[in-house]
Amino acid sequence: MKQVIVVNEALGLPPGKMAAQVAHAAVGGLLNAPRDKQAGWLQAGMPKVVLRCGSQDELFALAEQAQAAGLPVMLIRDAGRTVVEAGTPTCVGIGPDEISRIDAVTGSLKLMR
Amino acid sequence: MKQVIVVNEALGLPPGKMAAQVAHAAVGGLLNAPRDKQAGWLQAGMPKVVLRCGSQDELFALAEQAQAAGLPVMLIRDAGRTVVEAGTPTCVGIGPDEISRIDAVTGSLKLMR
């Protein structure tokens, strides 16, 4: 079991801002998941991986693929008071779910640096 | 209601690593909180603020103050496979709890950039 959070790197979010957005996705993804996936992930130590994609189109495409695959999905839009325009999608939480099921959608993405 | 996550800035964590640690603290803090605080925070839209402190000693002192004040506290130690030594404390989640109760502990800290 794991959870991945994919960030749109093209936004160039400052690190503190990005961390808050990733945390929104992690918490929201957990709350969106069915009870058995929540429990399995907690027992596994709640592993999380932060990945990156290169555009908003790519972010939307990943969210759609994950949804179609039946994975828990949590797309985060920024409130937009400071860094980016209001409503800008910043990242998407995928999972918690089985590692192989998540890798089928995000397996080609690189780690966020 | 809000939750803050305080990061030890002195570690110089790479942004992606920091985001994962902050997400651990956010999820762990939520799970550590009593049911009524969980519910109040969810209803408020789960506001999160990422702050910074300058040393491990300061991080520990904040965690202790928050614990003494009866706030939900989640100290995160890195598994340490890559960037920092195993077991290094990276950040602490404080809350969810009432804004004034959290500000009494973290009110003087600056936003993580």
Automatic annotation (TrEMBL), chains A, B:
Transmembrane segments: none annotated. Pfam families: PTH2. It catalyses: an N-acyl-L-alpha-aminoacyl-tRNA + H2O = an N-acyl-L-amino acid + a tRNA + H(+). Its EC number is 3.1.1.29. One of its GO terms (molecular function) is hydrolase activity. It comes from the Bacteria. The keyword Hydrolase applies. It is an enzyme of class 3 (hydrolase). The keyword Hydrolase applies. InterPro entries: Pep_tRNA_hydro_II_dom_sf, PTH2. Gene3D superfamilies: Bit1. PANTHER family: PEPTIDYL-TRNA HYDROLASE 2 (PTHR12649), PEPTIDYL-TRNA HYDROLASE 2, MITOCHONDRIAL (PTHR12649:SF11). NCBIfam families: arch_pth2 (TIGR00283), PRK04322.1 (NF003314). Belongs to the PTH2 family. This is peptidyl-tRNA hydrolase. It comes from Phenylobacterium koreense.
